[in-house]
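User: Can you help me understand a structure? I only have the sequence.
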Amino acid sequence: MNLGNEFQEILNTCKCAKFYEFGIDEVIFNHDEQDPLVVIKMGHYKCGDFEIIFKEVLHHSIMSESYIYMHDEDHWQEKSFIAQAKTSQYAKFIGSYTLLYSQLEVHDIDESQLKHFRVLSQNFFVDILTTEIPQFKMIITDQ
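Assistant: Let's start by predicting it. Here is the structure, written out as tokens:
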């Protein structure tokens, strides 16, 4: 799972911290049908605050970490506070009761382009179905 230089910079700063050391401060969804976007603001006591920006979001959900299960058959690739499912039971579940797969077809998006990411933290997990790799941005604060 290659998530870019900004992600690697955050991991290096946090010294490979575990997901339960991170907290989700805010989740923002812009509900623009032309450019659906989810921004997750997170913090860590050592490395500070940062944002994860998901573009082309097809579905997202937030749930208490106490009620989430990481299915083995999803073949999760996990790096600190983010994981990606190689095969997603969640996407199949969402597709079974929504128009997800028909909309992929309408927009000429191959099903293989669908990605399932899960942002992990001490308090909540956020599941994101998207066609794009997320972007990461450190938040610089004056102290």
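Now, to help you interpret it: The chain has a mean pLDDT of 87. The helical segments are 5-14, 89-97, 100-106. Let me know which part you'd like to focus on.
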